[in-house]
Amino acid sequence: MNLVGAINNALHIALDTDPTAILLGEDVGFGGVFRAAVDLQEKFGKSRVFNTPLCEQGIAGFAVGLASEGSTAIAEIQFADYIFPAFDQIVNEAAKYRFRSGGQFDCGKLTIRTPYGAVGHGGLYHSQSPEAYFTHTPGLRVIVPRSPYQAKGLLLSSIRCPDPVIFFEPKALYRASKELVPVSDYEISLFNADVVMEGSDITVIGYGAQLGVLEKACKKAREELNISTEIIDLRSLLPWDKETVCKSVMKTGRCVISHEAPLTSGFGAELAASIQKECFLSLEAPIERVCGYDTPFPLSHEKFYVPDYLKCFAAIRRCIQF
Amino acid sequence: MSRFAPLLRTSWRLARSCGRASRSFASSPDIAVHPNIGRFSSELDLQFISRFDEPFLTFRVMDENGNILDPSLEPDVSKEKCQRMYKTMVELNVTDSILYQAQRQGRLSFYMTNYGEEATHIGSAAALEDEDVVFGQYREAGVLLWRGYSMQEMCDQCVGNRDDSNKGRMMPVHYGSKRHNFHTISSPLATQLPQAAGAAYAMKLQGRQACVVCYFGDGAASEGDFHGALNFASTLDCPVIFFCRNNGYAISTPIREQYRGDGIAVRGVSYNIRTARCDGNDVWAVHKIMDEARKIAISQKVPVLIEAMTYRGGNHSTSDDASRYRGNDEVSSWKLSNNPLARMRMFMEKKNWWDDQQETALRESARTAIVQVCNFSFSLLLSLLLFFPPPLHHKVPASLKEQEETLLEHLKEFGSHYPTVN
């Protein structure tokens, strides 16, 4: 099953097991532009799976309202690049609904799914990774899956989690990433990072599509330099699993963090700051961050811009040789 | 199909005024323009239009002196209900004056009065049922009072003490009460509109025989959320009543600088939403319009837009000084000629349902009650336990527990520099 198929499968299960679940968004009715919602309207009807007008703030606000009165709201923002009109509804409303009412009201049954990241030809407005805008917002959960199996389990957990969740889907992997995915109903914890590969020389941290890039870089480091890398997939960025990360860095003494989003104020900054505080005496080298540059996402120069496996490999080597 | 058809479909008997009756248009046959959009009527006489020939009319029941304008419009309410409505309007008025003074004395951080808009609150709230869900903006305290939210709860919220149902998290007047189906007020303007549409949709699917009422002002109607909300409510058939309190001002900005169209009402028609405008200082017009709107929303599962024309009698808030941008003449002429409380009182006096003695007694008892509950609210302390652990996430993340420990550790040494808690 590929990643978009796993998402679709999770949505089938979510709608099937929860009669109050509603799926909404632009072009969702015919199956969605990425086909994540295919067959859902036919199966669950137009009242539960429907198109909305083209208005992201409307989608987010409407979904907050659905969740606040007892429906499970699964809203799609067609591209993460277009989530910004919904920013106020997400940051000022969804995130604060429970807190501001002293727990009287909440919109915890809200999940916003949105495809993010580089695809090779997306340019400024079909490539962005805006996760850090949301990880700076108490009251939200921010989840990014790396593979089809992970995507299905994490999405089901997100939909059923009683907090509002922003679920970033790595659209580059929608069709490229395939693995065996059980057709049954299963969930993956939103609290724990996943140690994808154990190692002893250096800890490499990422999330989403960047995990594949890091695995390739680590393979090269192992084959060419005999470096044993420990790879951690954060899965949940807010809240994030500091314990697993710091335990690993205290063991290896070295750390490389990578994400596609620009370096400055990216989520890597939070990781690096926390790691240096917790692991100061264990660190053997400065923490490296391999990220997008501090420019808007380019079109023709995408290959130079993205933190590809060679840049990650070079950072691992620098860190080891420090 | 006639090009008038969409307009006629949306009009209802309280507002038949919208149309372009005097415009001539060619009678050539309809032409297919697009297989999806459908057919258009031809027009051979090119004209650009910016408004309909007739303005939206304003529905009224009672004049400025409390006289019912037409016997057919005589309010169908008992003496008891009428007295309760008036009593709530006066209580709101008295509460406003006491809490406003409390802010001036430095006992409250902030306050917003409801002066002048009492009829929009009580007239509309009295036409609703308890199971109807309310999303407010911030100047709808009367709706809550009508629903049974007590003065004590109001004061506790404004003080932000340990009894505050919002647990001290919101500025004064940002009331919210699950018990009264009144969602907690949020400061950003118009965000409640798309939420109200979504909530109404959820309620429709759940088969609840109730509607959502969403209050907002003329300024909020300029926000993108307003337009998104009306379009969503229309295309998704949501049983929601959008209630615009057009009080003439958004802080200092008068409506002539806020919009150029025929108020907010005309926008409803463009979204194919049943729309009507009423005199917002006429409690019976508001009551009737809300009663009809509720029937439409619930029986037809569609949205309704109401524009109530009223006047903000006080400052925007205690942080505002309205004398900087509007003349005292304007305010005093409103007080003399169009005060909703005075109009309601005159109506009741004509029926021998009210007299000066009752008026004095009501104001006295309301004043005593509010002063008493205020003092009690001020005597309560803030509870630190309500800050940590916060009901922020369903489960408190480890990072937040760490931060809590940091604060508690800090307070061990420096606690005397912080507010007293218990």
How would you sum up this structure, described in words?
The complex is a heterodimer of chains A (322) and B (422). In chain A, helix 9 links the parallel strand 8 (202-206) and strand 9. Helix content of chain A is 38%, strand content 18%. By secondary structure, chain A is of the alpha/beta class. Chain A folds into 2 domains: 3-173, Rossmann fold, CATH 3.40.50; 194-321, Rossmann fold (3-Layer(aba) Sandwich), CATH 3.40.50. In chain A, helix 3 (56-68) packs parallel to helix 4 (87-93) and helix 9 packs across helix 13. In chain A, strands 2-1-3-4-6-5-10 form a 7-stranded mixed β-sheet, with helices on both faces. Chain B folds into 2 domains: 58-379, Thiamin diphosphate (ThDP)-binding fold, Pyr/PP domains (Rossmann fold), CATH 3.40.50.970; 384-417. Chain B has 422 residues and is an alpha/beta fold. Chain B is globular. In chain B, helix 2 (79-104) packs across helix 3, helix 5 (151-159) packs across helix 13 and helix 6 runs parallel beside helix 7 (224-235). Chains A and B meet through helix 3, helix 4 and helix 5 of A and helix 6, helix 7 and helix 14 of B. Chain A: Residues 1-176 form the Transketolase-like pyrimidine-binding domain. Chain A: Pfam families: Transket_pyr, Transketolase_C. Chain A: InterPro entries: THDP-binding, Transketo_C/PFOR_II, Transketolase-like_Pyr-bd, Transketolase_C. Chain A: It comes from Guillardia theta (strain CCMP2712) (Cryptophyte).
